[in-house]
Amino acid sequence: MRLVKILSATLVLASTSLVAQTDTSAVKLKNDSLVAPTFSTSLDVLDDEAETQDVSGLLQSSKDVFSNIAGFNFSAARYRVRGYDSENFNVSMNGVTLNNPENGRAIWAFWGGLNDITRYQESKAGISASSYNFSAIGGFSNIEGRASSIRKGTRISYALGNISYTHRVMATYATGMMSNGFAVAASVSKRWSDEGYVDGTFYNGGSYFLSLEKKINNKHSLGLVAYGAPTIQGKSSISTQETYDLTGNNHYNSYWGYQNGEKRNSRIRNNHEPEIILNHYFDVNEKTKITSSLYYAFGKEGNTRLNWYSAADPRPDYYRNLPSYYDYPGGEAMFEQLTALWQANDPATTQLDFDQMYFANSKNLYTQTNVDGIADNNVTGNRAKFIIEEARRDISHYGFNTVVSHKKNDHLMLTGGLTISKYKSNNYKLMNDLLGADFWVDVDQFAERDFADSSAAQSDINTPNHLVREGERFGYDYDINIDTYSGFGQVEGTTAKIDWFAAISLSSTSFWRTGNMQNGLFKDNSLGDSEKQSFMNYGIKAGAVYKISGRHLLRVNGAYQTRAPFSQNAFVSPRTRAEVVPNLQSEKLMSGDFSYIVRYPKIKTRATVFYTTIKDKTWSRSFYHDELNTYVNYMMTGVDQLFMGVELGAEASITSTIKATAAFAKGQFLYDSRPTATIVQDNSTELLAENKTIYFKNYKIGGIPQTAASIGLEYRSPKFWFVGANFNYFADIYLDVNPDRRTEEALANYVTSDPQVDEVVDQTKLNNDYTVNVFAGKSWRIKNKYYLRLNVNVNNVLNNTDFETGGFEQLRYDQTNIDKFPPKIGYMLGRTYFAMVSFSF
Amino acid sequence: MKKLHFIISSVVISSILFTSCNKDYPEPEPRTIPIGTVLTIAQVRALYVPGEIVKITEDISVYGVVTADETTGNLYKEAYLQDATGALYLRFTSSSGLYIGDSIQVNIKGAKIYKYNQMLQVDSLHADNSILKIATQKFRTPEIVTIADLNADIEGYQGKLIQIDNVKFVERNLGLTYADGVNQEDVSRFLEDLSAAQIEVRTSGYANFANDTLPAGNGSFIGISGQYNAGLQLLIRNPNELTMNGATPIEITKNFDDNSLTSGGWTTQYPVPNNTWTVASFTGNYYGNITNGSSKLVGESWLISPSFDLSNSSAPLFNFKTATFASNTALKVMISSNYDGINLPATATWTDITNSFAYSTGSWAWTNSGNFSLTAYLQPTVYIAFKFTGTASSWDSWEVDNVKVIK
Fold first, then answer.
1. How far is C-alpha A478 from the geometric centre of its chain's CA atoms?
2. Best mutation site among B4, B20, B91, B105 for testing chain A: the one with the most A CBs within 10 Å?
3. Rounded Cα–Cα distance for residues B397 and B278 (Å)
4. R_g (Cα) of chain A, nearest Å
5. Is B133 in Cβ contact with A365 (below 8 Å)?
6. What are the residue ranges of CATH 2.40.50.140 in chain B?
7. Touching check for A114 and chain B: CB below 8 Å?
C-alpha cells in the first residue's frame, strides 16, 4: 500500500510538471505540442532511422525493469527512451566509443548480425557512473568483445523472420581462456531475403567477428578484436496518405520498379565499416587496472538514389504524378484516369519504370564540346537522362583511449581516462549505373539553367564538361575532419546508506572541411581546407542512491554538460562550399532525474521523473524546392528542447510460474525556444532568408510516442517452456513540424481569425494505438551436454496495419494550400514474426 | 594452436563468402520508335483542321533539325523543328531534352495538332517515347529576312529560324532588360529596322538572360519567328547570337524647323535664276518651298545637301517627304559623288534618281518618299540635291521636308 502511495505521489508530481506552456508570441501561434526531433541533414536519413539505429533495443539486456520492457515492446513504435536522440546514448565496444563523430549517432547496422556477441554488454539507462567514459545523459551500452569474457562453447542458430530478412544463420564459437594463455571467440552470420515485409526491399548481409586474447603474464593481457557487417539492403519509402489510400497499402514503397520483369530497388544501402581494436589489459596491482585501446575503423556507407537530367521526375509519388495534382476544375479527366491506374496498382503508374528509363537513355544522342575543358575535344554519345548515383561516405577513424581505475578501498573507487580520436570522412557521389547510357555530364543542372555563364554549373571547374562513366566520382567530393581530445575523472563511493558518484569531463573538438573539387559557383570557398571550428567543452554529473532499506531505494542524478555542435549540422551546404552556419555554438545539456526503486524478491518496481533541457542546438536539413528548382538548406540555430516526464516499470511474480510486467512512460518532449533560421540554396550564394524567427516554442517533438504503456503476462513452465503476451499502448504521437510554417511570414496574408491560420500553424497529432505481442519458447537438454532452444516472437499479432507511428510535415509548403504538400506518414508493420532455433554445446 | 588457425581461417573464409555483392539486373531489351508514315513538316502542318484539335492516332514520323531548345530557359517543355519544307513548334509533356542541331525523328502518334492564338503547334509530345536523336551538331543557317518579309507571310514563317539585319531595339526599350526575371514575368520588347518598321520580341521571365540589359546597338537579330494572334512575335534562342553591338546609324535630318534654308551646310544654286528656294511654314511646321509662281517664271533651282561621307557606312539610306497642290512638272532628285559643293551643278556628274521615290500627288498631302538605298554610293563625298525646273506652261509648287540620310 505504501508503494502505491509513493507511486501515485510521483505520478501527481510528474503530471503537474507536464502542464503545457504557452509561447506568448507576437504572432499568435497555436502551441500545445511536443516530441522527437530527428536532426537529420536529409529526410532520407529520417526515414531510415528506424532500421539503422534502434538504440532502445540495446537496453533490452539491461537489468532495469523499465528499460527491459520498453526495449522489447516499444521499439516498433519508434519509441525513444526519454525522447532522446541516439546522440545522447553512448555505445562502445571494449571501451571504444562507436558513435559517429559527425552526427553523434550509433549506427546499429554496422555490427548487425553479431547478436551472439552484442548480447554481452553492460547497459545503463539515464545518468550514471560508467567505467568506460563520461557516457551520455541517456545512458550507455558497452559491448564486451574481450575473448576471455565470452562464454565458452559453440552456438549455431537459424532464424526465420518476415521483417527485413527472411533467413539468418549464425555460428559462434568461444574457447574461453585456454591453458596456453590464449582465448579466441569468433562469430559469423548471414542474413538474407529476396523480399522483406515491404515490397521491393531485399536484404543481403554478412557479419564477422573475431576476438583474440593472449595472457602474457599475470599483469598483462593483449586483445585484438576485428569485426564488420557488410550489408546491402533495398530501402522502403515513407509517403503521403494519398498513396496509401490509393494503393490500399499502408506499406506502399515508391522506391522500386520493374526492370525486365524483375523488381529493382532504386535506393540501396551498402555499408561496410569494419573496425579493428587492439586492447591492452594491465592489472597494475590488486587495486589498480589500466585498460588501453588502439582502434581503427574504416570502410564505406553508400546510399543509392535516382537522378535525372532534362527529364520528368520519374518518382511515382512525386506530387505531380498523383491524382490530387489534377484536383481542379478541368482536371477531372486526368484525375479519374490516374486514380483508376493507382487503384489498380498498375506498376507503370505506382512504381518506377526502369525499362522506360533505359529506353530514354538509349536514344539521347548528345555532343559534349570541350570535354574536360580541352578545346575541340568533342564527344558524341548517349547522354544519360536517368542514372542511379551513390552518395558515399568513406570513413577513416583511428584513435587511442586509456582508462585507469583505482579501488582505494571498499568504499571508494576512482576512475579516469583519456581519449584521442582522429576522424575523417570522404563524401562524394559515385556513378553507380548509367542505365544503358554512355555518359553523364558533370554539371549542376539547376545552376546551368540559372546562370548564363556556363562555368557556374561545373561541379569542378578544373575539369569542366567532364563526362562521368560508371564507377567515377562526380558532383561533389569533400572531407570532413574531426579531431577530439577528451578526458574524464570519476569518483564512486559506497556507504551503508548511500551510494554516490561524481564525474567531470573536459574535451576539445575541432572540425573542418577539405574540398576536393572546385565548384563553379563557389570558386573561392569550395577547394581545400576550410577554417577550423574549435570548441572546448566540459561536463559534470553526480548521482546518489539512498537506501531507505535494502528493499526501498531513492535515486537522484544530475548532469550539466556542453557539447560541440555536430559537423553534420554545421556546414550550410558542405556539398558545395565551406561556409558554416552563422553563430555556431556549443549545445548545453542539463538533465536531472529522481527515482524510487523497490526490490522485493517477488516484486520489482521503478518510478522515475526526469527533466532535461538541451539548449542551442543547431538544426539543418536539405530539401528540393520545386519552385526554385534547387536544393534548399534550412538551418536553425538556438534550437532548445525540453524533455520531461515519468517512467514506471514493475515486475511481479504472481505465482512461481506466472510473472506480470508493466511499464508506463509519459513525457513532454517539446521545442523550447524561438530559433533563428537561415535559408540558403545549394547552388546560389543568395540567402533566401536570414535571421528569420521561428515560433517553435512548445511544439512537440514529432515522430515518436510521448506516452507508451505495456502490460504483460508470462508463464514459465518448470518443464522448460514458456509463453507470454504483452499489450502495448501508445499515445501522443505527433508529426514533426516544418519550422517555416511557424513564422510571421507564413501568416502574413492572414488575420488571426482566418481558419487557415490554424491549418498552417497547428501540429498534427496522430491516433493513439495499441499492439499485442506474443512470445513462446522451449528448450531441451540432450545428454546433459547439448542444448536445443526454440523461440518464437510474434509482434503485432492483431495485424494492425493502420498504426501511424510518425512522420513529418514536408519542408516545402504552399501557404495558400497546406494540403498541396501533405505530410509524409509511416505505419507500423503488420503482423511480423521471428522464430529461431539454436543449438549450443 | 591448430584450433586457433582453424578458427581464424574459418572466419576469414566465411567473411569472404558472406561479403555481399551487388545485385545484377539484366538490361531491358532494346526498344525502337516506330516510323510509320513519313511526312514532311509542310505535310504535318497541312494536317491541321481550322478550329479543331486534331489527335494523331497512328504512327507518323517527321524528320528535321532542332532550331531552338530549352537551354537558356526561354523555352519550357518546347522546341522548334525545321526541314526544307517549313518549321514546326513542338510542345512536350516534360522537358524535351533536345538541343539545337539535333537531327531527330519525331513520331507524332498521340500528339495533338491545333492552333493556339494562331500559332500552329504539335502538342503533348512525350520526350522519351516520341523522339529519336539521329545526329547532333547539324546546325541550320538562319534565313535572312526583313521585317517586311515576315509581315508579308506571317503564317509561312511560323517557327522558322530567321535573321534580320540592321535592326536595333527601339529607343524607349533601351536600358531595359529582356524580361522581368525578378517576378518571372514575360515581357515584350520591340525591334526597329531602318525604315522604322517594328516587330515584337517576347522573352520569358524564366529565361536565364531575362535580367540582362538589352543591347543598345544596331546589327543582326537571330531568333524564331512566331505568331501571336494577328501579330508577329520573335523569340530569342540565346542573346549571344544577337550581334546588335554596331554603332547606331547616324541620322542627318534637315527639317527646316530652325527656319533656315542653309543650316547644316545646305546650299542653293540657280543655273537659271528667277525662282528661289525659301523656308515656309504652315500650322507651325517649317519646310523647304519652291515655286515659279502664278507668273510661271522659267528657271532652274537646286537645293543641295552638305557633303555626306558614306565611305564607312554599310547600308546607308535616304528618304524625305514632299507635298504639292497639283504639280505638272516633277521635282527631280539628283545624286553626285564628285560635286565640289561650291560651283554650279553642271561642273559635276549627277545621277537622276527621281523615279526611286514616291511623291505627293496633290492637295498638299505630305507623302513619304520611301527609303532609297545609298549602298551604291559608299563614297567620301556624296551630295543629294532637289532640282526644280520652272516652265512657262504651268504654275508649279513643291514643298520638301524631313530630308534624312541614315549613314
1. 23
2. B20
3. 12
4. 28
5. yes
6. 37-135, 143-246
7. no
- CATH classification for the domain delimited by B37-135, as one of 2.40.50.140, 1.20.1050.40, 3.40.640.10, 1.20.58.100: 2.40.50.140
Segments of A548-599 assigned E as strands: 552-563, 587-599
What's the gap in Å between the CA of A262 and the closest CA on chain B?
Answer: 8
Residue A734 is given by DSSP the state: B
**Complex ipTM, two decimals?**
0.75
- CB–CB contact A366 B3 (8 Å): no
pLDDT, one tens digit per residue, over A145-175 is: 999 999 999 999 999 999 889 999 999 999 9
**Fold entry, domain A2-316+351-840:** Maltoporin; Chain A (2.40.170)
**Nearest 10 degrees: CA dihedral of B5, B6, B12, B17?**
160
Residue A713 · residue A770 · CB < 8 Å: no
The dihedral region occupied by A541, where left means phi > 0, alpha psi between -120 and 50, and beta the remainder, is beta
Listed in sequence order, the residues at least 6 apart from A783 whose beta carbon sits closer than 8 Å to its beta carbon are none
Q: Across chain B, what does the average pLDDT equal?
A: 90
- Are B28 and A184 inside 8 Å of each other by CB? no
In chain B, which segments carry CATH 2.60.120.200? 251-406
Going by their DSSP bridges, the two strands B231-236 and B367-368 should be labelled as unpaired
Task: Compute the Cα dihedral for A557, A563, A566, A570 and give only its sign.
Answer: positive
What does the pLDDT look like over A215-254, one tens digit per residue? Answer: 999 999 999 999 999 999 999 998 999 999 999 999 999 9
Span A723-741, pLDDT tens digits: 999 999 999 999 988 888 8
| Contact check, Cβ <8 Å, A232/B23 | yes
- Which residue's C-alpha cell is 530539401? A623
The mean pLDDT of A665-672, rounded to a whole number, is 95
Q: Write the CB contacts of A486 (distance below 8 Å, at least 6 apart in sequence).
A: A133, A134, A418, A419, A421, A505, A506, A507, A508
Residue extents of the structural domains in chain A: 2-316+351-840, 317-350
CB A244 within 8 A of CB A184: no
Instruction: Give contacts of A 273-312 with B, CB under 8 A.
Output: 309-312
- The alpha-carbon gap from B129 to the nearest alpha carbon of chain A, in Å, equals 7
Q: Which residues of B touch A450 (CB under 8 A)?
A: 208
User: B251-406 — its CATH code?
Assistant: 2.60.120.200
Residue of B nearest to A450 (CA): B208
- The residue among A613, A659, A521, A511 whose CA lies nearest residue A68 is A659
Strands A139-143 and A256-259: unpaired
Distance between A290 CA and the closest CA of chain B, angstroms: 27
Residues A501-536 have pLDDT tens digits of: 999 999 999 999 999 999 999 999 999 999 999 999
Beta-carbon separation of B208 and A450 below 8 A: yes
pTM attached to this predicted model: 0.82
Residue-wise pLDDT for B17-30, tens only, equals 555 455 578 888 88
Q: Do A232 and B22 touch (CB under 8 A)?
A: yes
With beta carbons under 8 A apart, name residues in chain A contacting B129: 359
The Cβ-side half-sphere exposure at A192, using a 13 Å CA radius, reads 12
Q: Which residues of A419-447 are buried (b: 16+ CB within 10 A; e: fewer)?
A: bebbbbbbbbbbbbbbbbbbbbbbbbbbb
Do A262 and B26 lie within an 8 Å CB cutoff? yes
What type of residue is A683?
A: N
Looking at domain B143-246, its CATH superfamily turns out to be Nucleic acid-binding proteins (2.40.50.140)
Contact A354 B102 (CB under 8 A): no
For residue A53, pLDDT over 60 is answered with: no
Nearest CA among A641, A565, A650, A639 for reference residue A603: A650
